[in-house]
Amino acid sequence: MRVIVCGGDGFCGWPTALHLSVRGHDVAIVDSLARRQWDVELGTQSLLPIASLEERLQRWEELTGRQVRVHVGDLTDAEWLAGVLRAERPEGIVHFAEQRSAPYSMIDRQHAVFTQVNNVVGTLNLLYGIKEIVPTAHLVKLGTMGEYGTPNIDIEEGYIEIHHKGRSDVLPYPKQPGSMYHLSKVHDSHNIHFCCRTWGLAATDLNQGVVYGVQTAETAMDPLLWNRFDTDDVFGTALNRFVAEAATGHDLTVYGAGGQTRGWIQIRDTVRCIELALLHPARPGEFRVFNQFTEQFSVLELAQRVAAVAPSLGLTVRIAHLPNPRVEREAHYYNAAHTALVGLGLEPHRLDDHLLRELLTLAVQHQDRIVPAKLLPRVSWR
Amino acid sequence: MRVIVCGGDGFCGWPTALHLSVRGHDVAIVDSLARRQWDVELGTQSLLPIASLEERLQRWEELTGRQVRVHVGDLTDAEWLAGVLRAERPEGIVHFAEQRSAPYSMIDRQHAVFTQVNNVVGTLNLLYGIKEIVPTAHLVKLGTMGEYGTPNIDIEEGYIEIHHKGRSDVLPYPKQPGSMYHLSKVHDSHNIHFCCRTWGLAATDLNQGVVYGVQTAETAMDPLLWNRFDTDDVFGTALNRFVAEAATGHDLTVYGAGGQTRGWIQIRDTVRCIELALLHPARPGEFRVFNQFTEQFSVLELAQRVAAVAPSLGLTVRIAHLPNPRVEREAHYYNAAHTALVGLGLEPHRLDDHLLRELLTLAVQHQDRIVPAKLLPRVSWR
């Protein structure tokens, strides 16, 4: 299948591009390289050193004989994007190309406006480009489980059947996102749904849980293919931060009580979910929503898992409860459906001690690249 | 009460500013005057000639002795907006300052992106400005009934209690907006709700129905105070278009079967709803939603009402069913709650033959200002 991976230089996009390439798809990466600039802005860096996109793709071709084309540019530039779509004529369009950090979006007004405009306009340009140039292409868009918030009822996959005053309908699941970033994904979902209804586009919205882990079979092949491993307070997700903290002798920084429960997924499963969605496309006019995660954990449970495994590497760690920089419920009901991708064949990798030891080992090996001051939360929701 | 009316030069904002001023509030208008430029862009004009904002306010002061201050500028300019908030320190902020035409937003990609960025960024800037400068101010934001779409269950006022798998919660009412414009209002609603939850802001979202009519007691006082009367395909709503068509001997242009049912409200009631919301503010942290309309009509019913009254002015009209330029259901269930504003004291003006004759008379008097080619739909949803 001819596929473009928008955001193909990022933490999810890069391993996805390689996974699709090795599985025989004809892949092009579309990326503005903005994520690397945000590291510069924030004074942080990936715990694993990452090669330039050019070096990455050259090494990939040397190792596998497979070419991955590259288009460097920004989805907010509609004319340029139209040129890419005309050149590539993709059958599948994977769209990771958004600012994806909740804390980054909450730094200040400028970062909030940037995140929403960047994400919403990029996606609008892509929708118009699909409509005009490749109307039968299947859009696989990354959403987030955070769109739903923490309602007191079960979370379903995108829609819910509501019975009300003697009538019923299946309607979009209500959204209660928890940051300016999560809001941008809610806006995208409504925009894409409209374009499916109105123009007959085919789209799959993957409401992904929090992603953890680093390497996939492909990225682990060579240091020049290594994936990024974010452990800072702005782009690092909880488990990756805990691992970095354990490796460097810092307390594990649980925000508040730690009862915040979310869906989680390994990066190894992310890449497989994307291919499953591509191989089983949405129908024309369909806005299909899958919840893309494999297990539910509270933040405190994850810290406890890391603390339990760390001694086997000679590390002793403590769990610290910090004042929560976010505004969120720290104890709540949470039960979210996630059967659609399993129905398409996903066999989940569960979080196990082996993976935790692998992550801790990487963090110990590269601990000189961790910036201790950037482990503690610097961005407040208030 | 110290009030700023953002968008106070527009069709709803201007009569609202005067209504609040005459009722004793201390009013300032904040407007970019963009609406006048869109007339230039589209080659159309208000059926009633409207004076400049400066002339309007000078005449208002001459007639009533009341001053209304003006700040000309754009809400997307955050620094300027912050200066306005610091100067005015409003207790109430009425926010009409958005691009409000569905067809305008559907002209092409540029107009879609403009509408969403303009509306979302302006509102985000206002939210940050309130948070930082006037955190106890009450935001009264204009939404639209079009946010809900046409679900097969009753529409409630912003929230719905959902019973699901043995549990229940009150959640935001699901949204199925029907244009890039309506989507922008859905995005706003989610953004404002978040800021109420997270920062403790107080906001009322008025999901207004389609507004018809022209004058209020205040705008009718003098030709220099006249309100705009849009009858073109892009900014004219159905009833106003029908009136202009009847006055100029054109068929009434019903889109499709005409069974599209919506909530409707007279401009005379709009201004009263705004004051009611201001006098009974939301609590800190509350995102309150009122459905602001007084009656439900199908588009065909409205055309029939106009056709029935027109002969009393010597006009004979026919109803024409045009191919629908929009993508929407032309026959559907529709029953929307609208009791909250009545509970605060609203006594609705119903659509009656007297008002229809008043509108037809205005349209006949000013028929030389109607551009016939701009009565037929030029913008397609497809």
Model description:
Two copies of one chain form a homodimer. Chain A has helices spanning 13-22, 34-42, 53-64, 78-88, 102-105, 109-133, 180-199, 238-247, 267-279, 299-309, 340-343, 353-365; strands spanning 2-6, 26-31, 69-72, 92-95, 138-144, 159-164, 167-172, 202-208, 210-212, 252-255, 261-266, 287-292, 295-298, 319-322. Chain A is of the alpha/beta class and 382 residues long. Chain A has one domain (2-374): NAD(P)-binding Rossmann-like Domain (Rossmann fold, 3-Layer(aba) Sandwich). In chain A, the strands form four sheets. Chain A has a seven-stranded parallel sheet with strand order 3-2-1-4-5-8-12, with helices on both faces. The first copy, chain A, has a three-stranded mixed sheet with strand order 9-11-13. Chain A has a two-stranded antiparallel ribbon with strand order 6-7. In chain A, strand 6 (159-164) and strand 7 form a beta hairpin. The radius of gyration of chain A is 20 Å and the shape is globular. The model of chain A has no long low-confidence stretch (mean pLDDT 97). At the A-B interface, helix 6, strand 6, strand 7 and helix 7 of A face helix 6, strand 6, strand 7 and helix 7 of B.
Essential attributes:
alpha/beta, 382 residues, Rossmann fold, homodimer, 3-stranded mixed beta sheet
Largest interface: A-B, 47 and 47 residues
Strand content of chain A: 15-25%
CATH class of chain A: Alpha Beta
The number of E-state strands of chain A comes to: 14
Total helical segments of chain A: 12
Q: Roughly how many Å is the radius of gyration of chain A? A: 20 Å
Could you give the order of strands across the largest sheet of chain A?
A: 3-2-1-4-5-8-12
Q: What is the string of SSEs of chain A from the N terminus onward?
A: EHEHHEHEHHEEEHEEHEEHEEHEHH
The name of the CATH superfamily of chain A reads: NAD(P)-binding Rossmann-like Domain
- The averaged pLDDT of chain A comes out at 97
Q: Characterize the biggest β-sheet of chain A.
A: 7 strands, parallel
Give the overall shape of chain A.
globular
Briefly note the CATH topology name of chain A.
Rossmann fold
Poorly predicted segments of chain A:
none
Total discrete domains of chain A: 1
